[in-house]
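ok trying again, last paste got cut off:
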Amino acid sequence: MTYLISLISDHLLPNYLFIKEMEGRYDSLLFVTSKMMHDAGIGKRIEYALGLEENTVQRIIVSEEDLNKMLHKLESVPFSKDDRFIVNLTCGTKIMSIGVYEYFSRFDSSFYYIPIGKNKIEDVRTSEDIPLNYRVNLKEYLTLYGLTFEKEGELLHTEEETKDLFNRFKRANFNRYRVPEILNAQTLPKEIDRRYYSGVWFEEYTYLRIKEEKGLAADYIWRGVKLFRPDSGLINDNEIDVMYVIDNKLYVGECKMSLSGTPMLKDTALLEQYMYKLAAISKDFGLAVNPYIFTLHRFYRFSENSLKAIEKRKDILGIKGILSGEDFKQQKLNI
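nice, full thing came through this time. structure:
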């Protein structure tokens, strides 16, 4: 019997990628998990993402802090001396990794590690790098982080109409007073048009442009994604305008056609609010998320001091980039 062993922690993507990459090379999966991770049902997320029934994968619940207790628990499992083990050491605590390595070294075992954010598998004993070819889609990614979701369906207007509106807005130097539909969006007779011209069109344009430039299939880029945490019932915790995954890295985008605030809230303060919101949402998606803000605001109108303050806040909050109207004028987006 060949077992593939995964150490379970909150960060499940490396485990899932390794399991998918090794399909056909093992007979059975085995989770080594702490009691806290087991009680939280973390392993069920991998089972669900793999299309398996809950609790069908064997678990070994070990101490995450006491090496001797952990080894004693592993020794109590009746493995055969003829069994073989493929061990992923990427996740779990340091004690769990040490214990698993020490115990399964007694058997015919190979040990691997996936560096965070890199599509390669390292053979721990030989230092050989093995390409990681599997690529997760958005459904898989969100399932692994315990989030349920809804996403927008059809575009409100056609792709051609949205691209034409962007080009007209660009020729108007992104001045809404020179594009009647945008200026008068709230007075339009149809509700769908009021939504569209008030700003949804820019979400759709950004979605279409990224999808086209990055060559993404529909399973790898969504727009208008509503997220629901397990304890929130049917309440939508957060909504992300554009979300996509490339080479197992998640990108989330907040789209704001304009940053024009009110007399009580300046555009720089409004931008800071969006950065804080995006940074907070990004914490739900593990260690390798890439948050961006997309806007058509005319940044050349900001003072030099304001631009420096924005850049500093962006770096502190981990926002990967803020693309403005000038960026959208370029042939390709710099993302």
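cool. The radius of gyration is 24 Å. The mean pLDDT is 90.
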